[in-house]
Amino acid sequence: MTDFHSPVRCLAVIVDRGKGEQVTRLCRARQVSVRLVLLGHGTASAEIMDYLGLDEPEKELVLCLVPDGLVPALLSELSAELGFSRPGRGIAFTLPLSGVSAAANCPTDHGASRVALSVEREG
């Protein structure tokens, strides 16, 4: 299986309700289009919420695609602007799309049996 590196990552930002617009503004200032803003209600236990630094159950989830090279600066700016270093302010993280893209591409390129074998070897 060949390695695939995607130049794009999915940015996920979870903040208290009403802070999503601030996230959107910061992303757009760096020419990053916000693709999806979802309203959410936390259902995690108090222990998990404390661990993640989340305190209010009413949340906004902002998702967008970010060029790989822009990720460190954008995460730093979001953290500074929204105070993510303090508990209860929210969380931001990125997910590589290469894993999703490579996994989705395998069945069409190599057949389903090869995907099953590669998963067994890696796991």
CA gyration radius, whole angstroms: 17 Å
Largest sheet: 4 strands, antiparallel
Strand content: 25-35%
**Number of E-state strands:** 4
User: Helix coverage percent of residues?
Assistant: 40-55%
Query: How many helix segments?
Result: 5
Q: List the uncertain runs.
A: 108-123
Order of helices and strands: EHEHEHEHH
Mean model confidence by pLDDT: 77
Shape: globular
Counting helices, strands and paired strands, the structural category is alpha+beta
Query: How far apart lie the N and C ends?
Result: 15 Å
Biggest sheet, spatial arrangement of strands: 2-3-1-4
Please give a structural write-up.
The structure is a single chain. This protein is an alpha+beta fold. Helix content is 43%, strand content 27%. It is built from five helices and four strands; from the N terminus they run βαβαβαβαα. Strands 2-3-1-4 form a four-stranded antiparallel sheet. The two termini are 15 Å apart. The C terminus is likely disordered.
